[in-house]
User: What shape does this take?
Amino acid sequence: MNELQSLASAPGSEAAAAEALQLMRLLQPICRSITGNGVRETLKHVASYVDLKTYEVPSGTRVFDWEVPKEWNIEDAWLKDPRGRTIASLAESTLRVVSYSTPIRARMSLAELRPHLHSLPDHPDWIPYRTSYYREGWGFCLRHRELEALAEGEYEVCIDSTLDAQGSLTYAECLLPGSTSEEFLLYTHVCHPATCNDNLTGIAALAILGRALAKVPRRYTYRLVFAPGTIGAITWLARNEALTKRIRHGLVTGLLGVDGPLVYKRSREGRYDIDRIAQTVLPGLERDADLRDFHPYGYDERQFCSPGFNLPVGRLTRTPNAEYPQYHTSADDLTLIDPARLAGSLRALAGMIAAAESNRRYRNLSPKCEPRLGARGLYRPTGGAHVPRFEESLLWVLNQSDGGRDLLEIAQRSRLTMDELAVACDALLKAGLLEPAESDAVMTDGERS
Assistant: This one.
């Protein structure tokens, strides 16, 4: 069993989930945003799992209709009440300060302060996650019960932050060459502070998945991208537009650890191979897997699926953004993560990749009636019993392999798994009864460019 097969198994995925949780504990205290040292520190931890190349894109760089923002960093922040008591501080939680808050040191009345305070009336014990990336401002996030307890008087505000026009946006890639230059893109966002399901689960899962992929033979070239949400994907696409023609499959992934069903969101076209892979693999792993049509709101799949690119990229999460109450709050912490669900997400990712790797079109070399499988040691010596699944897989592959149908289509028609069909294909190839169809032959890099 190789590393990817182990990750696709229950024991292997459970061990990987435990390791992912360890990485998440390391990453949770880091103050991340869409730019800055928090992203760099996060990527350094990821680099202990996979070989990363880090890119710095200068602030002000034009990326389609956007531009790379000033780089934001923060050293300290606190809010003190009229009696000098600290109500909120960055040291307590990175969610306490509105991300991208401009620097301020001032004293002000409660009336002046209130427009800069954010809370969740429906969840009075949770701290919200708030941002102000593209409109300069500042703010603090409080528990609603804290906000309601504020007394009249003079408050002291300190946010020791910087917005550097000479800074940059940071993202990183792990490139794992395969036997072809066709690529499988795996993308996750790295910009959220503190919140664990969104998206420390995505970062940790992709780090562990990448490490497993690095140790196995690969048909596809895998490109793992760790970048800030929205502006990171837009920047990556602006800088890599020429290579997007190589992308054969793609997944945006994250939100993988909450107790909810696997949710796959189809690509814009809804009929790419990655969509067929999800339809074939996920229900076999979890009966409640939810396959949804494309919608132009969500995570960075909406950038890859914008009409000017229209890439074969879907999204894999568990309960998606804004569909679980702890989303973008302090309650999205390590206690929210279900290790069994995180393990199941890792199995799903490994299973989808394995299906992509094994999916091919074949041609039956003995198409007129069934070949004698028993004479080749592929059929049981005694008949009359129920047909074993291996033999059923052999018969389905032989019957359907006319050079036009791929294994995904055979799996859907037969209700056999891709793993079962792949084992049958290997046996039939060794027996000289099957060959790759000409349309599925491996092309050279020059032929693909």
